[in-house]
Amino acid sequence: MLIPIYTGRVIDSLRTGYQEREFLSAIVFISVYSLGSSLGAGCRGGLFMCVIGSFTRRVKLALFGALANQDIGFFESVKTGELTTRLSEDTTRMGRTVALNINVLLRTLILTLGTVGLMVSLSWSLTLLVLLETPVTGLIERLYHSYHQRLTEEVRDSVARANAAANEAVSGVWLVRSFHAEAGEARRYDDRLMDTHRLKTLRDRVRAAYLLARRVRGGVCLCVCVCVCVSSSTHPGLRPLPSVLQTLISIFGDMLSSVGASKKVFEYLDRTPQCTMGTLAPEQLRGHVTFSDLRFAYPSQPDSPVLQGFNLVLKPGTLTALVGVSGGGKTTCASLLQTLYRPQHGAILLDGHPICSYQHHYLHRKVSVVTQEPVIFSRSIRDNIAYGLPDCSLDDVQQAAKKANAHNFISQLEKGYDTEVGERGGLSKSEKQRVAIARALVRRPQVLILDEFTSSLDADSEVKVLQALSSGSAPTRLVIAHRLKTVEEADHIAVIGQGRVLEQGSHRELMEARGSYYQLWEKLF
Ligand SMILES: Nc1ncnc2c1ncn2[C@@H]1O[C@H](COP(=O)(O)OP(=O)(O)OP(=O)(O)O)[C@@H](O)[C@H]1O
């Protein structure tokens, strides 16, 4: 703020005849203020860099937490690529832009107030003249930022689409390779990259036009100012105001645009998941499950109910097999029992209470699932089995692995339970499935859902696992299976079709009834 004043004094002292004392004192002041200003700027910049790092980490963590709590319907409607872009790029940009702008805004605000004060004390008429530049600057900034913000959002969305295409191709690389679709996938990715490139080029052209307009405006205003200064012999120290005002206006616009760019991040942060859980966590749970008059349609197809008037009871400790034609809604029942979705009508009761009234953590310890496609995380086998149970001992892990007929193959591995396995590599499908069964069993669940869990198991493993599951205090088991052995051994069989239970009873009863189970048996088994 003060440096231009002393610069003006140096020029004055040279113009009106050299006076050593005045000249030297002005130089000393300029040096001291410059040094102070540099030190201040260095400290401020350094501190803000630290703040940016910590702020970005916290925003990422908050966003990750918010995303992890969303219902499954949300993940079906938003692409993985988009979510990872928001998480990796948008949060970083948001942290950097907001923190940097606040830094510059604070500095410029103080500078502006001080400079205006100094200028008014020197010449109010010239101050007014300089301030006339502000509306022009404001108009240019407003026009630019509203257009630029829209373009930036479009660029971000198109980057997310390109990422989604790359993610899809990488995660399905086996299929891409075996169908020789590499060129097609590359073309698809290139199309999306071209979209991004086109939008970025447009955005950069707009920026170039904006910078030109800013320069022209600055040049014109400088000429006017210098002419007036020369004609009225006013102090040249007045010049800094337009530049700080311009920075202030530009920072304000930029902040608005970065806040706008962070819109999606805030949208996800503020999104409340549809399935909120209750607080019930009883010490004893029998595992009595009742599906009562359920109606359910997937959020993406609200007008096509998958279940309608669905009623079924799973008695504690029994094995119930759910059979029916493909697409009949068997997996949907399992998903509803895990509270992945919420039925539009009716309720699922666990020991007489709606499942959503149980504590989230408690419910998922008591209700375990083995899915059709076992998910294995990139960590050790032990950590995969004890997933979500930080206090689980190795002994418990081994017991569960023995029941799942996985202990033998794990023990034969060089590092045993500490063997690192990847998302895709390292284990065969049957081994992955057995690890997934052990993961479900280690929780000692009261209700166990086994969705096509025998599809990758050999007959020997299937028998062993089924025997282990029925021994001791067996949990309530709901099995979705196409295998003869599993279905025949069930205590209760329910045939699902047209969104409801068509027929139920034991294998013998249903075969004798010669109804839909009998027909299914003839067709499927
Ligand atoms: N996430 C989803 N969004 C929309 N519709 C879905 C979704 N998942 C399943 N569906 C539809 O719901 C119906 C029932 O599917 P579900 O997976 O429950 O059947 P299923 O009996 O388990 O079939 P399968 O024996 O082939 O595994 C099907 O018509 C399917 O297309």
TrEMBL record:
Keywords (alphabetical) are: ATP-binding, Membrane, Nucleotide-binding, Transmembrane, Transmembrane helix
- Domain ABC transmembrane type-1: where? 1-213
List the subcellular locations. Membrane
Keyword Nucleotide-binding in the entry? The reply is yes
Record's keyword annotation contains Nucleotide-binding: yes
Q: Name one Pfam family in it.
A: ABC_tran
Entry superkingdom:
Eukaryota
- Can you provide one Gene Ontology molecular function annotated for this UniProt record? ATP binding
Topology in membrane: Multi-pass membrane protein
Q: Which GO terms describe its cellular component?
A: endomembrane system; membrane
Q: Which residues cross the membrane?
A: 23-52, 104-132
Residue stretches making up the ABC transporter domain: 289-523
Q: Which InterPro entries match?
A: AAA+_ATPase, ABC1_TM_dom, ABC1_TM_sf, ABC_transporter-like_ATP-bd, P-loop_NTPase, Type_1_exporter
Q: Which PANTHER family does the record associate with it?
A: ATP-DEPENDENT PERMEASE MDL1, MITOCHONDRIAL (PTHR43394), TRANSPORTER 2, ATP BINDING CASSETTE SUBFAMILY B (PTHR43394:SF14)
The name this protein carries in UniProt is: Transporter associated with antigen processing, subunit type a
What species does this protein belong to?
Gadus morhua (Atlantic cod)
